[in-house]
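ok so i was messing around last nite and threw this chain in just to see what happens. nothing serious, just curious
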Amino acid sequence: MTDVILVINAGSTSLKFGVYGAGADRKLPLLLGGGVDGMSTAPHFSAAAPDGKPIDSHDWGQGKAIDHKTALSFVVGWVEKHEAGMKVAAAGHRIVLGGERYAGPIAVTPDALDYLESLTRMEPSHQAYEVLGARALAEDFPGLPQVAVFDSSFHRTMPEVAQVYALPRELRDAGVRHWGYHGISYDYISRQIAQRAPRARRVIVGHLGGGASMCALLDGKSMETTMAFAGLTGLPMASRSGDVPADVIFYLIEQAGYAPKDLESLLYHKSGLLGLSGLSEDMKAIQDSKTPEAKLAFDYFIYAMQKYAGSYAAVLGGLDALVFTAGIGEHSAPVRAALCARLGWLGVKIDEKANTENAVMISTPESAVSVWVIPTNEDLMIARHTLDIALPA
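result:
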């Protein structure tokens, strides 16, 4: 019997999964991955080997909507039939917000799910669907150990002054605070940079993808991060606005006639790189475009990172290492070059050839700050926490 850990990232109409070997050596090799897309319209299952080679697929048919329970039951059944003797021994879930109750990964219980579902009012984009995934799995597989790993938990090491807003106590006590996200990614990167640059105590990491944020690390612990209350603020993202002053929000409601739902749609789905460029939410398309609007989108993205990097260097009392990760961070040499050029005052110098080649270390020997391109691996981090909690040695 081969025990495996199933890592699940559930969305509104789709879910992704990864399968990791949970052998005695506890090395957690990725065995396969896949997902179910289009659950509300034309559900489609696909699975692939670690190298991306397709293994299998399944369609329910156009108009044959399925729910999370159906999708997850199919996934577990398929995994256990795919290879003789393979058994799902535990499941790990990415859940964005752990709230004040959970400062680290937890074993899933009905009470925990009730609490996590109550946090949906603060984080409406992901929280409800991720909790729904854990509930759905528990219904069909009640004896299966499940673990919740939170994006927000990693940032509970931030100083209290960095976690509060200048609001009355009753609002702060009600959960209006700086939560921070992408913590699973930062957890992984903090461990990687500790191995590659063990003397780098003061580190800034840019998790730059469709959702983008930055984090200031001191001795591997979060001191500050750009995403704040939910997943909207901080850096401009693919279609999310990033920072917009509160008085602009008041103006849009009171003077421009925006209803709350319309405003939410504007800021989450029609802004950011897409809104600035009027072209695309994809950084590659923006870099390749010659339009003034595309140039503005690129420049604004770099400028926002420059401002945060400068303030985070002040928070940390200097800078020893800068790390780029996630889709844009790992693959966009122009973004890395542009930001590093603006951080020359910190002693940042990069090797143009290494940067163009997406090398792991792209700084020059003379650079006062080491600069790294490190692929993140959130699923592996979830699998690691799940192994430690559900299947301890």
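not much to say yet. The CA atoms of residues 90 and 145 lie 5 Å apart.
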